Amino acid sequence: MNLLQYITAEFTAIKVDSPEAEARLVIEYLYGNDVFLDTADADLSKFQSVLERRKKREPIQYILGRAFFFNSEFIVNPDVLIPRPETEIMVEKLIDFLPCNGVMADIGCGSGCIGISVALERPDVRVYSFDISHAALQTARLNAQNLNVSNIEFIESDLLANCPSDIKIDAVGANLPYVPYDDYYTAQSEVREYEPQLALTADDNGLAIIIRCIAELPHFMKKGGAAFFEIDPSQDVRLKEHLSIKGWQDAEIIKDYTGRSRFVKAVWQI
Ligand SMILES: C[S@@+](CC[C@H](N)C(=O)[O-])C[C@H]1O[C@@H](n2cnc3c(N)ncnc32)[C@H](O)[C@@H]1O
C-alpha cells in the first residue's frame, strides 16, 4: 500500500472531512511529497504523532504549522485563524479594484493572509494591516518576512483606533469576526476548541464589530474607494442596507464558490 492510500484510509476512519486532501498535506510536509512511497519503506512513526493529534480534532493546519492561501504558504498557530479558501475571492477583488500606487487597509489581519497576498501581487500598492491581537500580529509579521513582502505595515489596533490620521484608503479588505454566537456553539470541534474565539464571534448576530468598523471608516476613505466585508450568508441584506443608510453607494453582495452570499462591497463617494 502506498502512503497516500494508507494515510487517506486512516483519516477516513477517524471521519475527517477531506481525508485525501489532508493526507496530501501530511505527505508533502513529512515525506517530501512522495505519495507513492510504499508504507513498508516509510517511517510511519512521524505520521502516528500527527494522527494522535488529529484524532483529538486539532486542525491539520495547526498540527503542521502551515496553511496554503492564494499561492503562498503561511505559518499558522492557535493565535491566528486558519485562512479559508473563500477568502481568496476577496483577495482577487482587491487586486482588481486597487488603483496604481493605491492604499489598502486589511482590518482584522490575523495571519496576514489577505494583505500579504495583495501586497505580493501588487508591489505598487501600500498595505496597512490591523489587528487587535498582539500575538496574531507577531505571526503576520513573520509571514510577511518569510514571503519577502516589504510594501506592508502592521499596526496593533482596535479597528482603526491607531490608524495614522493622514492615511487615505482606496480599498478595505475586512475579514472581521462575524459568526453569530448560536452558530459558534454548534460549530465543529476543530473550530470551537482550537481556533481563537476572538477571531470568530461578535455580538448583534455577528455584525457588531463590522458595524463599528463602518462607523470608523469614512474619516479615512478616499472618494471612490471601496470596502469589502466578509460575512455570514445570513447577514447579506442587513449589511447591504446598513451601508446604504450610512452613505455608502453601489452596495453589492458577492457570492462564494458554493453560491452563498459571502461578501458585501460598497463604495464611498463623499
Ligand atoms: C476572522 S479572523 C480573520 C483573519 C484573517 N484576515 C483571515 O482572513 O484569515 C478576524 C481577525 O480580526 C481580529 N479582530 C477581532 N476584533 C478586532 C478589532 N476590534 N479590531 C481589530 N481586529 C480585530 C482577530 O484578532 C482576528 O485576527
Percentage of helical residues?
25-40%
| Strand line-up across the major sheet | 5-4-3-6-7-9-8
Number of strands: 9
CATH topology assignment of the largest domain: Rossmann fold
What's a concise summary of this model?
With 270 residues, the protein is of the alpha/beta class.
Plain-language structure description:
- This protein has helices spanning 3-13, 19-30, 45-55, 60-64, 87-97, 113-121, 134-146, 181-185, 189-194, 208-216, 236-245, and strands spanning 66-69, 72-75, 103-107, 126-131, 152-156, 169-174, 221-230, 248-255, 261-268.
- 38% of the residues lie in helices and 21% in strands.
- The chain is built from 11 helices and 9 strands.
- It has 2 domains: 3-56; 78-268, 3-Layer(aba) Sandwich (Rossmann fold).
- The strands form 2 sheets. Strands 5-4-3-6-7-9-8 form a 7-stranded mixed sheet, sandwiched between helices. It has a two-stranded antiparallel sheet with strand order 1-2.
- With 270 residues, the protein is α/β, with parallel strands linked by helices.
- Helix 6 links the parallel strand 3 and strand 4 (126-131).
- The N and C termini lie far apart (64 Å).
- Residues 81, 83, 87, 108-111, 113-114, 130-133, 136, 158-159, 175-177, 198-199, 209 line the site of S-adenosylmethionine.
